[in-house]
Design goal:
Shape: globular
Order of helices and strands: HHHHEEHH
Strand content: 5-15%
CATH topology of the largest domain: Arc Repressor Mutant, subunit A
CATH superfamily of the largest domain: Winged helix-like DNA-binding domain superfamily/Winged helix DNA-binding domain
Helix content: over 70%
Number of strands: 2
């Protein structure tokens, strides 16, 4: 019984270490193959802004970067026409960053390219492996929900 507990604990340690590494590896691989020149942080900001306009301070906190760093990033995205600054209706001194229609299109293009890349590779898996991956996604969603509380 103790041996089973030790094995499970060891597996949990391995999984806890492997998940972030594999996720980061998938992101890096995708970013080397996408037709859009974009960084992981820029993708994170675009994804974040799909939920609606955000203040610079919120974006910095969400992306775990400094306010000056996120300001430079937002400036780059604005120069590309992907985001714009709009007055904050609740505070005239502040501005919100929001996605432009072009930025929305770029994000959708990134999503489509990511799905196509993974779909092509996953299509070569056998049915049981696809089912295992689908179950893993469900399990990860539950884990993320619990960790987010």
């Amino acid at each position: 019984m103790e041996q089973a507990g030790a094995k499970r604990s060891s597996q949990l340690d391995e999984i806890a270490e492997a998940l972030p590494q594999r996720s980061a590896a998938l992101s890096r691989l995708f970013l080397t193959r996408t037709t859009v020149c974009v960084s992981r942080t820029e993708v994170g900001v675009l994804r974040n802004l799909r939920a609606g306009p955000r203040r610079i301070t919120e974006l910095a906190a969400d992306e775990r970067v400094t306010q000056p760093a996120i300001t430079l990033l937002v400036n780059r995205l604005a120069e590309r026409g992907w985001v714009e600054r709009v007055p904050d209706p609740s505070d005239g001194r502040a501005v919100l960053v929001s996605l432009t229609p072009v930025g929305e299109g770029v994000f959708e293009q990134l999503r489509a390219e990511y799905r196509a890349l993974l779909h092509e590779e996953m299509a070569m898996l056998d049915d049981s492996e696809v089912e295992t991956l689908a179950a893993a996604v469900d399990i990860l969603d539950k884990l993320i929900e619990r960790l987010s509380r």
